[in-house]
Design a protein that fits this description.
The protein is built from 1 helix and 28 strands. The protein is mainly beta. It has a single domain, classed as YVTN repeat-like/Quinoprotein amine dehydrogenase (Methylamine Dehydrogenase, Chain H), CATH 2.130.10. The strands form 7 sheets. Strands 4-3-2-1-28-27 form a 6-stranded antiparallel beta sheet, with no helix packed on it. Strand 14 (192-195) and strand 15 form a beta hairpin.
């Protein structure tokens, strides 16, 4: 027995040492070196962005949509209306040839727009007291998904398999039931995250969870989170996954934007479990969070009502990069270029 004891002890120590290993985090940048205003409109409010090469497409209030050029070319702006209604577009997605914009509230109006801006078509409509769509994404050029607030006890899910030409609404059969007071926030078009065939949808409100599908929405699981929840304006407002395992979600309490505890959570197992990070550090309310490309899942960039923040170590520590509090959403154009939009503006941050 004694002869066996030493190898066993050595094995335990070896395993313990392996578990104690810590990822080495490196600072990718330390400041915003330059800020360019790409669009200024005192009447515009933007919560949806999509980067398409040298263009940044947006959907906005008042039926407004369009693109700003990232290469100094001519911008484009249009208006999509329904009779006399000017929708508020907060969800946006794209395929190789088209951009899709979807509004909040009823009636839901989903427009398909050719990327040359010459063709616009309404491809889905839905009316009802509880109709309110939050986010839309595509898996590929043919298959897409949009989600909205609950109806009939489950999240509203519509899907397309023909490049966005037609959309079908899922009934609640096969969809997980929502909890009382559980919904979603149309804050930045980042409620849905897609990596390959895998889909994550985040909810908020009195219950804030992660809905997960590994087969493009055919079957679903639901995972609890440790983010602050319980009130109508609490929970996850935005999430991102660096790959199929490392994910981050942020939000908090919209009515207490300075609160920076319980509002930042991290997963390293594909969303099954979440840990609270950065307690009392960095941003309070987070409207949008995105992983920094090429950061090995360690860099995070956020906008919200407390300013612009960056973390190089998966949300443990934070650095404030800008006092801008009017930005709702962001997308990376490349590893050192961020396009952000919100109230009255679209801006470009050059990082250094």
């Amino acid at each position: 027995m004694k002869k066996l004891l030493y190898p066993v002890l050595f094995g335990v120590l070896f395993i313990s040492c392996k578990k104690a290993e810590v990822t080495e985090f490196k600072l990718a940048f330390s400041k915003i070196a330059a800020t360019d205003t790409l669009l200024k409109d005192d009447s515009i409010s933007i919560r949806g962005l999509a980067i398409d090469g040298s263009k940044a497409w947006y959907g906005a209030n008042g039926g407004k949509y369009g693109w700003v050029s990232l290469a100094g070319e001519t911008d484009f702006n249009g208006v999509a209306a329904h009779d006399t209604l000017l929708p508020e577009f907060r969800a946006i997605a794209q395929t190789k040839s088209h951009v899709f914009i979807l509004n909040v509230a009823s009636p839901a109006l989903l427009f398909k727009i050719s990327k040359d801006g010459k063709f616009t078509k309404t491809v889905y409509t839905e009316s009802g007291e509880k109709v309110f769509y939050d986010c839309m994404k595509f898996y590929n050029d043919m298959e897409g998904i949009a989600m909205g607030d609950p109806q009939n006890g489950c999240l509203s899910i519509i899907t397309t398999k023909d490049g966005g030409e037609t959309w079908q609404k899922r009934d609640c059969t096969g969809l997980p039931p929502v909890a009382e007071g559980e919904a979603a926030f149309a804050a930045s078009n980042t409620n849905i995250i897609i990596r390959g065939d895998k889909t994550w949808i985040v909810s908020g409100g009195k219950k804030s969870r992660v809905f997960y599908s590994e087969d493009k929405g055919k079957t679903w699981e639901v995972f609890d989170t440790s983010i602050i929840q319980g009130g109508e304006m609490t929970g996850i407002f935005s999430a991102d996954f660096y790959d199929e395992t490392i994910g981050f979600a942020g939000g908090g309490n919209y009515e207490k934007p300075e609160l920076n505890t319980g509002n930042k959570i991290l997963t390293t197992d594909g969303g099954k479990t979440w840990e609270t990070v950065g307690e009392g550090k960095g941003p309070g309310y987070i409207s949008c969070v995105q992983f920094v490309p090429g950061s090995n899942g360690s860099g995070l960039f956020t906008v919200g009502r407390n300013g612009v923040f960056y973390s190089y170590d998966r949300g443990v520590n934070w650095k404030k990069l800008s006092d801008a509090t009017n930005l709702n959403t962001l997308q990376f154009a490349d590893e050192k270029t961020v396009i952000a939009a919100g109230q009255k503006v679209i801006v470009r941050f050059k990082l250094e």
